[in-house]
Amino acid sequence: MGEEMRELPCRRIQVDEIWAYVGKKQAQVTKEDDRSRVGDMWTFVALDPETKLVPSYLVGKRTSRNAVTFITDLSERLANRVQLSSDALNSYVTAVEEAFGTDVDYGQAVKFYEAEPVSPGRYSPPRVTKSERNTMVGRPDPLHISTSLVERQNLTMRMSMRRFTRLTNAFSKKVENLRAAVSLHFAHYNYVRMHKTLRMTPAMAAGVSNRLWSLEELVDRTTSN
User: Which residues lie below 8 Å from residue 162, measured CB to CB, with a gap of 6+?
Assistant: First the structure.
């Protein structure tokens, strides 16, 4: 993916983050632990809503520095000006400015949630009571300021990788394991898995690949690298 996801003709990109943890829950992290390697860990994901391609991702802490690294990597893979949508994470504002400058149409989809307190054992998110679409840079089309499809990609990740499932003992024990699993997932998702609505893989829809990869080929390419 690092070699082939270049000069991409994407017109719109949605970005989001999905939570997991490594080694132990954040509440169990102690002063003796290396906090860069255990506890809460986030996967930043970029999605082209038209081709369903995932051109860029990053596994790490939910920091401003990682947001800049992620958005910069994304910007370097695109061939033209795009409309970018994110949630209201403040780090994205600085990241987009550093990576794109003014050469982007950027909007944020902001959601407001019910004030009901979260009771013990409740893992479903609170109900959305209001949403706004805010223009941040350029002239994004308000109708396409959205993160709905990349949020749906989060569900695909949870269904495909057990280490992202809540209330499980299948969490990653090392951050390297989480990164390897995410990399393999997105390689399979982009090149091998047929998308039902597209009737082809995202890589084929985006012009990155002209054929359907086999699982055997993916394994061979993975082991050779």
Answer: 168, 170
Q: Is the pLDDT of residue 114 over 70?
A: yes
Sheet strands (E) in 83-180:
83-86, 105-113, 128-137
Segment (H or E) for 224: helix 215-224
Name the token pair of 81.
């000006």
User: Helix, strand, coil % (nearest 5) of the chain?
Assistant: 35, 25, 45
* 160 CB-contact burial (10 Å; exposed 0-12 / middle 13-18 / buried 19+): middle
Query: Given its phi and psi angles, is residue 176 left (phi above 0), alpha (psi -120 to 50 degrees) or beta?
Result: alpha
pLDDT (tens digit per residue) in 149-205? 999 999 999 999 988 877 677 889 999 999 999 999 999 999 999 998 899 999 999
Strands 128-137 and 57-60: unpaired
Q: Which domains does the chain have, with CATH numbers?
A: 12-224 (3.30.420.10)
CA Rg value for the chain: 18
Cα–Cα distance measured from residue 189 to residue 181, given in angstroms and rounded to the nearest whole number: 12
